[in-house]
Each structure stands twice: as structure tokens, then as C-alpha cells.
From TrEMBL:
Protein name: Phosphoesterase
Similarity comment: family membership: Belongs to the metallophosphoesterase superfamily. YfcE family.
GO molecular function ontology, one term from the record: hydrolase activity
EC numbers: 3.1.4.-
Keyword tRNA processing belongs to the record: no
InterPro entries from the UniProt entry: Calcineurin-like_PHP_lpxH (IPR024654), Metallo-depent_PP-like (IPR029052), Phosphodiesterase_MJ0936/Vps29 (IPR000979)
Key word Transmembrane helix present: no
Length: 167
């Protein structure tokens, strides 16, 4: 599994980094947690990914919102998962997500551009891959990979991309 979010192409970057494109092509499933900005990136990822699970974000206009849900819920290899762009402030996030996603075992989200890996009191795994194109105040641009098998999430790895931005 490849998880990305907040790509903001072409506003914050002209293109996804080549390393991310290689991950898109290698992954069994690509998760995108919103803020695409342009439909053209959605089209290209759909063409290159084996499977895409994606949502729209707050910077995505009517064209993307007509093609993508606000929340996606899927089961991957026995793991119940949800994807959403925004989860609200960090304070109270764990309790809020337990309440909003009671049937999920994994929640992938975006919006903040801040990588996040935590488990709520209710056992929900929360993952934010950061952004592969716009690091904002983070030390690096990032994305996540993981393995999902037999209802388990394993080998979660945060990848840092070299350089400051894609422009």
C-alpha cells in the first residue's frame, strides 16, 4: 500500500516526484487522502495504479468532488479502513476519530501535511502520510508505504523525499 495526500498539483508542485510515481506503479493499492487540486493528476494516477482509494480535500473543486467521496470505506485483505481528508485539530483527534469511525481499524487522513502515526484508545490506527510535494513547516516532503495481509497492517514506513520541493 502507498499512502499520499496533499499533492496540490499543479499549484504547489508541477508534478509528483519520480520516486512517488515508481511507488504508484509498484503498489497493490494507492490511497490518496485529498487535496489533489486538478483532475489531471487523478486521471494519471487512475491510469497507473492497480487500485485507487481516494477522497477529495478542502482545496478540491466541483469536478473532483463529483468524482470522489468525502469519506471512503474499504476492506483491504481483511482490514477495515477509512480515508478522509480532515480530522480536525490534533487535540481530541483520537476520541473524535474513534467516535466517527467506529467500524474502521485504520484511518488514513491528510490536510495538515504533518506525518502522523498513532493508535487511539479504541484501537483505531491513525496514519497521515504528510505531503510528497509541499512540506510546509516539516523537515521533508513525505509519503507512507505499508503491507496489508490477513487483516493486519505491517511494515509501516514513512519515506522522506530529498530536496525542498518539486518545482
Amino acid at each position: 500500500m502507498l499512502a499520499i495526500s496533499d499533492t496540490h498539483v499543479p499549484q504547489r508542485a508541477r508534478e509528483l516526484p519520480e520516486q512517488v510515481w515508481r511507488e504508484v506503479e509498484a503498489a497493490d493499492v494507492v490511497i490518496h487522502a485529498g487535496d489533489w487540486v486538478a483532475e489531471s493528476l487523478l486521471d494519471r494516477i487512475e491510469d497507473r495504479a492497480a487500485r485507487l482509494v481516494a477522497v477529495y480535500g478542502n482545496n478540491d473543486g466541483p469536478a473532483l468532488r463529483s468524482r470522489l467521496p468525502e469519506v471512503a470505506r474499504v476492506e483491504l485483505a481483511g482490514l477495515r479502513m477509512a480515508v478522509v481528508h480532515e480530522t480536525g485539530p490534533a487535540k481530541g483527534r483520537a476520541q473524535r476519530c474513534d467516535r466517527l469511525f467506529p467500524d474502521a481499524e485504520l484511518l488514513v487522513f491528510g490536510h495538515s501535511h504533518i506525518p502522523w502515526d498513532d493508535v487511539t484508545p479504541g484501537g483505531l490506527r491513525l496514519l497521515n502520510p504528510g505531503s510528497p510535494t509541499d512540506r510546509r513547516r516539516q523537515p521533508a516532503r513525505t509519503y507512507l508505504t505499508a503491507t496489508i495481509a490477513r487483516g493486519r497492517l505491517d511494515d509501516v514506513e514513512l519515506h522522506e523525499l530529498p530536496g525542498r520541493e518539486s518545482r
